[in-house]
Amino acid sequence: xxxxxxxxxxxxxxxxxxxxxxxxxxxxxxxxxxxxxxxxxxxxxxxxxxxxxxxxxxxxxxxxxxxxxxxxxxxxx
Length: 77
Known about the structure:
The chain is mostly beta strands. Helices cover 10% and strands 38% of the residues.
C-alpha cells in the first residue's frame, strides 16, 4: 500500500463521484479529509460552479474529499 503522503507532487488519475470522466492531476497536499489537486483538466461541471473559476484561474487547485473519491491510480515508483 502506498502512504498517502508519498503521493505529494505525484501525478495521479482519479475518479470523482458526480463527474463522468477520470481526471489526471498532481497531488499538491494531503489533509485528513481529502486531497488538494492541481489539474488542467478541470471538469466543465466544476468550471461552471463558481464565478471565481469563470475568471480564468491559470492553475486551478481543487479539494477532493475522500468521501467523493471513487478511485485513485498512482505508480509505486
